[in-house]
Amino acid sequence: MSDSDYHSLSQDTVFDLLSNSRRRFVLHYLERAGGPVRLSELAAEIAATENDVSVDELTSQQRKRTYVSLYQTHIPKLQDAGAVSYNAETGMVELAAGAGEIGEYFHQQGTDRQWQYYYLLLAGVGLVLYALAALAGVSTGVLFLLGAVVFGAFGVIAATHYLSIRRGRTELPTNLVDRE
């Protein structure tokens, strides 16, 4: 199926495609790769994740079992739906036109923290503490120390926010692989 032959998917079809952890992993991995990848590389990554080992620690049986499953079942199903394109001659697989539509259902909803509330809360608490300290007539040194603590807390929240965003881009979402 070429990208020009693509037709809109029903919600039932999308849910059926996403009902399998290997297909979810395929879509996630290809999205992160940003281009074509070898089916053997994809199979190795999935097998390593499912077996909770590094790619280097995989047995040939683990690799083969996952590769065959992808080759015979999951890639054809995703290809028929227009979500991936697979070239059997080169062994390369990549996202296709239908992947964008599936992506609407694929991404986790409501898992992002509302970081603006953390910043707003800290700013409000800092302002109230600073105003109370100033009204109470505490020394300039104490006001400076209080300001430094609030400023440091902003730094901690900003660093945590940054790391959570960065981790979210590189880690595999927990809903992609069933662990038994």
List the defining traits of the structure above:
single chain; 180 residues; mainly alpha; Arc Repressor Mutant, subunit A; three-stranded antiparallel β-sheet; disordered C terminus
Describe what this molecule looks like in 3D.
There is one protein chain. The protein has 180 residues and is mainly alpha-helical. The protein folds into 2 domains: 3-107, Arc Repressor Mutant, subunit A, CATH 1.10.10; 115-169. The chain contains 7 helices and 3 strands. It has helices spanning 11-18, 21-33, 39-50, 60-80, 98-106, 115-135, 140-170; strands spanning 37-38, 84-87, 92-95. The chain has a 3-stranded antiparallel sheet with strand order 1-3-2. β2 (84-87) and β3 (92-95) form a beta hairpin. α3 crosses α4 and α6 (115-135) runs antiparallel to α7 (140-170).
